[in-house]
């Protein structure tokens, strides 16, 4: 009998619909569809009661208000059990004085982790690496970041990324390197010779036809 070679699951990419899920969390059962109409930052961590993960959860918790200002829902995940999650977030509150205000998915069967490609066998056979998925109000994946097990994330960079995406959507512009809210943005490059000629007739001091910055109004 002819053997059928196993297919590697297709991992989600930027621009793909976010894989739907329903899962048990520290805040009860949730579905991704519950958050349609708002932004979501879904992030995985390798394991509960680990030092780097604990620092990340405290950092996310301290910045939760900043995410809420941007209409962003934080959702954590690991392949630990619900009792483990509850014990860990309780320990963080009791010992470190930080309350974790967002849900943490208990993904013991790895159903969500597999859909999002959060387990990288080269790094660890069972633990999820540090992934970040930014999902927009239409439930489309807009950004993906992977971190190794031994380096914690920059929460400020994730907030900056959300700011960039939201600004780009609202004003049809792009965010240049190291951009922060209030700084100049980049206009889309011309798509025709006529557009190039029009751009060359304007003020391009310090830039050129393919790179034009501007201040946002309002």
UniProtKB/TrEMBL annotation:
Its main location: cytoplasm. Residues 12-167 form the Thioredoxin domain. Its EC number is 1.11.1.24. Substrate binds at residue 130. GO terms for cellular component: cytosol. InterPro entries: AhpC/TSA, Peroxiredoxin, Peroxiredoxin_AhpC-typ, Peroxiredoxin_C, Peroxiredoxin_TDXH, PRX_1cys, Thioredoxin-like_sf, Thioredoxin_domain. It comes from the Bacteria. It is an enzyme of class 1 (oxidoreductase). One of its GO terms (biological process) is hydrogen peroxide catabolic process. Keywords: Antioxidant, Cytoplasm, Disulfide bond, Oxidoreductase, Peroxidase, Redox-active center. CDD domains: PRX_1cys. It is found in: Cytoplasm. Pfam families: 1-cysPrx_C, AhpC-TSA. It catalyses: a hydroperoxide + [thioredoxin]-dithiol = an alcohol + [thioredoxin]-disulfide + H2O. GO terms for molecular function: thioredoxin peroxidase activity. The active site is at residue 53. Homodecamer. Pentamer of dimers that assemble into a ring structure. Thiol-specific peroxidase that catalyzes the reduction of hydrogen peroxide and organic hydroperoxides to water and alcohols, respectively. Plays a role in cell protection against oxidative stress by detoxifying peroxides. Belongs to the peroxiredoxin family. Prx6 subfamily. Belongs to the peroxiredoxin family. AhpC/Prx1 subfamily. The active site is a conserved redox-active cysteine residue, the peroxidatic cysteine (C(P)), which makes the nucleophilic attack on the peroxide substrate. The peroxide oxidizes the C(P)-SH to cysteine sulfenic acid (C(P)-SOH), which then reacts with another cysteine residue, the resolving cysteine (C(R)), to form a disulfide bridge. The disulfide is subsequently reduced by an appropriate electron donor to complete the catalytic cycle. In this 1-Cys peroxiredoxin, no C(R) is present and C(P) instead forms a disulfide with a cysteine from another protein or with a small thiol molecule. This is Peroxiredoxin.
């Amino acid at each position: 009998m002819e053997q059928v070679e196993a297919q590697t699951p297709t991992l989600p990419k930027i621009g793909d619909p976010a894989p739907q899920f329903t899962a048990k969390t520290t805040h009860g059962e949730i579905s991704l569809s519950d958050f349609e109409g708002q932004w979501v930052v879904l992030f995985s961590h390798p394991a509960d009661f680990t030092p780097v993960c604990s620092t990340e959860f405290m950092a996310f918790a301290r910045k939760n208000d900043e995410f809420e200002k941007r209409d962003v829902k934080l959702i954590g995940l690991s392949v630990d059990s619900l009792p483990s999650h509850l014990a860990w977030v309780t320990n963080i509150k009791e010992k470190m004085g930080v309350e974790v205000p967002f849900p943490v998915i208990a993904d013991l069967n790895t159903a969500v982790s597999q859909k999002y490609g959060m387990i990288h066998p080269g790094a660890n056979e069972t633990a999820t690496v540090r992934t970040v998925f930014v999902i927009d109000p239409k439930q489309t994946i807009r950004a993906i970041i992977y971190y190794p097990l031994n380096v914690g994330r920059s929460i400020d960079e994730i907030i900056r990324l959300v700011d960039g995406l939201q600004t780009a959507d609202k004003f049809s512009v792009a965010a240049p390197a190291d951009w922060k809210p209030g700084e100049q943005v980049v206009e889309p490059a011309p798509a025709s010779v006529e557009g190039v000629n029009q751009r060359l007739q304007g003020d391009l001091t310090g830039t050129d036809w393919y790179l034009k910055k501007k201040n946002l109004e309002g």
